[in-house]
Design brief:
Largest sheet: 9 strands, parallel
Number of strands: 22
Number of domains: 2
CATH architecture of the largest domain: Alpha-Beta Barrel
Distance between the termini: 71 Å
Shape: globular
Strand content: 15-25%
Radius of gyration: 25 Å
């Protein structure tokens, strides 16, 4: 009897485990949050194909890219507009990027504005446009030529050469002021949804003959280090403070111009290893934000100088030095209530060398999606690179379209900026025009810029006054009309710039009206 009971107990335990595994797999495959950040990085630095394209060809290229993003339900495009102290937009304080025409300072012919084009095309599709800036990089190698009008020739004291590259010196206050001025100009002139930095602050360490070359900022440290209250022994703290001040100034500047524009950072995936700091992650990865790039991202999140954080977890689950799951948990536990998205490398997700058996490859997308979506402190993903979505490596894009991002998702709320819902639409009705049927409405009237309508969500429901809090919209549009193809009960809501949502207004379209 005892043996039989033990056997039955074992069967029960196995059954529970199997149910749990099945439930987990179903959850990761089918559960889609109603609000989730789904970003894609579109880099321009190093891109050699644009210079071979005409203006029309570039526009077609970006349109096709955004069409593919729309199919995969991407809702935020992070577009690199300042790759190297240059510009992918018109009338800039800095010269045209060489990655557009092949020569820095030379405008495209016929003239067009890539940033404005991307803002317009993203918003048409209900996507956000995050303008991506690099704060310090000026060149990528020693073979590049800066145009005659570049600030480098006017104020050479603002720059240093490190390895084979030229950088703004973060220790020069005027260099910082220049970067703030450039970004303030874009925030003022363009309807962007966010300012975005990636992982490049002080540059990654340069090695020569097996030794680290120290960043050449002795001149600026001699001028400002002592005045700022630092000594030679605390020089690294001074460097971190230089970046801290830039982040604080940008946060204040952006919000003073347009309080709804977010400021986001995508740091390297390790803040500090536990060997360097007992509060760091249990990893042994070679690079650390705090010690090597002088970027104290943890402090910026804690102080709420930024609105969202996207650590680049470009590692696989089981990585011996930087395990993805370990890092994800660390960032989750250190998000201080801020919006946290995970930077995902597509190539290192769909084809990962298995830790279990030499020579095998493992698709880690299901497990990574499960880890993200079951953690209440994580609010979405950003995919690197966006161009990979066009290539569909190992069926990755198909997986998003068919399994993980099948429905439209609203943006996560930004609780530390604004969560007040806008007013409802007015005068919702159906009209017939040119043999087509449309829902039409009027935007809510308000003098509060934070509550003005930016988009509208369309839902199909089963009854009037149905709760839509767990439903996904069938469309997000800027327009005050929407073509309908079938009868049913529709609901329309207002979204403001931060995608706070109004209560719905319902309309019943009977078949005899169509």
């Amino acid at each position: 009897m005892i043996i039989k009971n033990i056997f039955n107990m074992k069967k029960l335990i196995v059954s529970i485990i199997l149910v749990a595994v099945v439930a987990t797999n179903v959850y990761s495959q089918n559960y889609e949050p109603r609000r989730e950040f789904r970003g894609a990085w579109v880099h321009t630095v190093g891109n050699q194909k644009y210079k071979e394209m005409t203006t029309d060809e570039m526009k077609k290229h970006f349109t096709s890219l955004l069409d593919e993003f729309e199919k995969a339900k991407i809702n935020a495009v992070i577009f690199q507009v300042r790759p190297q102290a240059d510009a992918f937009y018109t009338k800039s304080i800095e010269p045209w990027s060489r990655f557009i025409t092949g020569t820095q300072g030379v405008a495209p012919v016929p003239l067009w504005d890539p940033l404005q084009f991307m803002v317009d095309e993203c918003h048409k599709r209900g996507m956000e446009l995050h303008a991506w800036f690099n704060p310090y990089r000026v060149t990528s190698n020693d073979k590049e030529t800066l145009c005659d009008e570049h600030l480098y020739y006017k104020k050479p004291y603002l720059f240093v050469k490190y390895g084979k590259q030229i950088y703004f010196d973060p220790g020069e206050p005027e260099a910082r002021q220049h970067t703030v001025k450039v970004i303030a100009d874009v925030v003022t002139r363009y309807d962007i949804d966010a300012v975005h930095f990636d992982d490049y602050f002080y540059p990654y360490k340069v090695m020569e003959k097996g030794k680290v070359v120290d960043f050449p900022d002795s001149a600026s440290f001699a001028k400002y280090g002592g005045k700022d209250g630092f000594t030679q022994e605390t020089r690294n703290d001074w460097r971190r403070n230089n970046v801290n001040v830039l982040i604080q100034e940008l946060d204040k500047t952006i919000k003073a111009i347009k309080p709804w524009v977010k400021f986001g950072i995508s740091p390297f995936g390790i803040w500090r290893n536990v060997k360097s700091d007992p509060t760091g992650s249990n990893t042994t990865g070679g690079c650390e934000n705090y010690d090597d790039l002088y970027a104290d991202i943890k402090l910026w999140v804690e102080k709420r100088w930024i609105d969202y954080n996207v650590p680049q977890l470009y590692f696989d689950i089981g990585h011996p030095a930087a395990d993805y799951e370990t890092l994800l948990k660390w960032w989750s536990e250190n998000n201080y209530g801020e919006n946290l998205y995970i930077g995902q490398d597509i190539g290192k997700t769909v084809k990962v060398k298995s830790r279990e058996k030499e020579g095998e490859f493992l698709n880690q997308l299901p497990r990574k999606m499960q880890l993200v979506r079951t953690d209440k402190n994580i609010h979405g993903n950003v995919w690197w690179s966006g161009y990979s979505l066009l290539r569909n490596p190992d069926g990755f894009t198909d997986s998003l379209i068919n399994s993980y991002q099948t429905k439209i998702a609203l943006m996560p709320k930004y609780k530390n900026i604004d969560t007040v819902a806008p007013d409802v639409v007015k005068n919702l009705k159906m009209i017939r025009r040119n043999s087509n049927n449309y829902l039409t409405w009027l935007a809510p009237e308000t003098n509060d810029v934070m509550q003005k309508a930016a988009y509208y969500c369309i839902y199909i429901v089963t009854q009037n006054n149905e709760d839509i809090s767990n439903k996904s919209p069938i469309a997000i549009t800027q327009n005050t009309e929407f073509q309908i193809l079938k009868s049913g009960i529709y609901a329309v809501t207002t979204l403001d710039k931060l995608q706070n949502e109004s209560r719905p207004i319902y309309i019943n379209i009977n078949a005899d009206k169509l």
